[in-house]
Amino acid sequence: MLITFISKASASILMLGKHALPVLEAAGKRFEDGVLPERGVFTPDQLPAAIAGLKAAMDEAPVVDDEVNEDDPDAPKVPAMSRAVGFKQRAYPLYEMLVAAQKQSVDVMWEPAETAW
User: Please, what is the average pLDDT of the chain?
Assistant: First the structure.
């Protein structure tokens, strides 16, 4: 399932449900049986704890190392689409959205994306 995160504070974010689940759990959301509900919300009152939880999880996440040496011109180039994506890279856009929403005191919601992708 493709999820869209929506807030009046920033542009929408698309994320696969299987990737959104650990990000939302780090932000303090708990789901029965580890199943992501189709819709959900962070209210302005929930944002400080969600931001703190997500920031802590991003700080503790291991660095993904594809052994790419950008400084060595003779090193084989790994296409960007082939590189691994770490938790911090997946979580950062939502973190930024949560921070912007907190500044404006607005909700952050998620729902199924309207695309058939």
Answer: 89
What is the CATH classification number for the domain harbouring 94? 3.40.1760
Domain that holds residue 7: 2-63+83-112
Q: Tens digits of per-residue pLDDT, 33-80?
A: 878 888 999 999 999 999 999 999 999 988 776 555 667 777 777 777
CA angle 3, 7, 103 (to 5 degrees): 135
What's the predicted TM-score (pTM) here? Answer: 0.83
Q: What's CA 1's distance to the chain center, in Å?
A: 15
Q: Which of 109, 112, 114, 88 is nearest to 9 (CA)?
A: 109
- β-pair type (2-7, 10-16): antiparallel
Q: Answer yes or no: is 70 within a domain.
A: no
